[in-house]
Design goal:
This protein folds into 2 domains: about 140 residues, Protein of unknown function DUF3822, N-terminal domain (Nucleotidyltransferase, domain 5); about 90 residues, 2-Layer Sandwich (Nucleotidyltransferase, domain 5). Helix content is about 25%, strand content about 30%. The protein is built from 8 helices and 15 strands. A hairpin with a 3-residue loop joins strand 2 and strand 3.
């Protein structure tokens, strides 16, 4: 494996003027982990995002590589190894998940629910779950045991909750989506992955995530879902978040196939100082929405 210094890169860092290192015990730390990236957020008592970092990973071939890299990154970081946060919320980005209606959920059967939708190894992975306040559903997901144990030990003096990226996106959409007579399709463009959601009258109708190998995959999967939902390609409204610029070549190409696209908003449950003006509003919606779940 390449050395850890060569294997991660800080893409963006913002430290708000309200951030105070002496108040870490009052702050909530958000850790949002994918296999190829990591986002960090810190939220103060006034629900203001006062710190943000976005990293990308390189040269990783296994979960062991990822854990080694995380340890190196955290140990060299001035804040992440502090052990006295008020809360720590850890979110994993992976495709090992299933949504289960709360009324049907039995905790002892969590692995059986997940087995219907994903492959996992109980010798190496824990089966966890988190509840959604808005969707009345439970997200069951897998997390590598060593990552779970490392985070739990690192923040043993803080309240730690583990959630899944899909639950963050679903909670954000259901809590903040405007009521419209014709519901839009909600899309989150992640790095190498596409999330598509549909909601009607405050209820989740559809959620799925798709792996992206090339740009044409975005259009293919969106068309697939539009057809499945019987939504018109030309007239249906699309709300778009994620890693796509408003003037980027990808968006210009995207617009040739998908009309009536509106970029998404930042969560209304957090506030942002002027330094965050350099980050487009539709970026990092999954990280921001972590603030909505995971306390129970």
């Amino acid at each position: 494996m390449a050395s850890a210094v060569q294997s991660y890169k800080l893409i963006k860092k913002i430290k708000d003027e309200k951030f105070d290192v002496d108040h870490l015990h009052q702050y909530t730390l958000l850790i949002h982990l994918g296999f190829r990236d990591l986002q960090i957020g810190i939220v103060n008592l006034q629900n203001r995002l006062v710190f943000f970092e976005d990293y990308i990973f390189q040269n990783l071939n296994s979960i062991d590589d990822q854990l080694d890299l995380l340890k190196e990154l955290f140990e060299s970081h001035q804040l992440l190894t502090a052990g006295f946060w008020k809360k720590v919320k850890f979110s994993i980005k992976n495709n090992k998940l299933v949504q289960v209606p709360s009324s049907l959920f039995v905790e002892d059967a969590a692995s059986e629910y997940l087995r219907l939708n994903a492959k996992f190894d109980l010798d190496k992975e824990l089966i966890l779950h988190c509840k959604s306040k808005e969707s009345s559903a439970v997200t069951v997901f897998a997390l590598h045991k060593e990552i779970h144990q490392w985070i739990s030990n690192l923040y043993e003096n803080s309240t730690v909750s583990f959630v899944h990226q899909s639950a963050c996106l679903i909670e954000g959409v259901l809590k903040e989506a405007p009521k419209e007579s014709v519901p839009p399709l909600y899309i989150y463009v992640d790095r190498f992955k596409l999330h598509i959601l549909s909601a009607r009258e405050g209820k989740l109708v559809y959620y799925n995530q798709f792996p992206i190998q090339q740009f044409s995959d975005y259009v293919k999967y969106i068309m697939l879902v539009l057809n499945a939902m019987k939504m018109d390609q030309q007239n249906s409204k699309i709300i778009l978040w994620g890693y796509i610029g408003k003037k980027s070549p990808h968006f210009i190409e995207f617009s040739k196939y998908i009309k009536n696209v509106t970029f998404g908003w930042r969560t209304k449950q957090l506030t942002f100082g002027y330094l965050f003006d350099e980050v487009q509003d539709h970026h990092f919606y999954d990280l921001y929405s972590m603030h909505l779940i995971g306390d129970s």
